[in-house]
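pinned: reference chain
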Amino acid sequence: AATGREISDLFVDEGEPYFRELERQAVAAAVAGHTGVLALGGGAVLDGGTRALLGGLPVAYLSMDVEEAVRRVGLGAARPLLAVNPRRQWRELMDARRHLYTEVARVVVTTDDRTPEEVAQAVLDALELKDV
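pinned: its C-alpha cells
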C-alpha cells in the first residue's frame, strides 16, 4: 500500500527481495505502533529480524490444508508465487515455511471448515485470552 502498487507488480518490476524489504519495514512499523490483531503475509516470517521481532508476542499460526486455501482465497489471482501450478506451489511453500510459522507461533490453530468467528474463538482459547 505504501508504494501505491500491486504486490504482483512489485514482484515483476522490482523482484521479491525488494518486496520482502518493504514487508519487513511494514511489519516492524505495525508491531511498534498497532495494539490490535495483525495478519501477516505468508512470507513475512522468511526474514530473521521479523521472526525475532515476533518472539514473545502472542502469535497464532492459522494452519489449513491446500483444499481449504483454495476454498478461501483461490490460488493464483494476484499471488505471484502461486501463478503456475498453484496447488503444487502452495504445498512447496508450506513445506518450506511451516517450520518458520511454528517457530514464531505460541499456538497453532487449524482453520479447516471453521468460520472466522470459530477461528477467532479458537485462537483466544488457545492463547488463554478472555472471550471476545
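why pinned: The mean pLDDT is 86. The radius of gyration is 15 Å.
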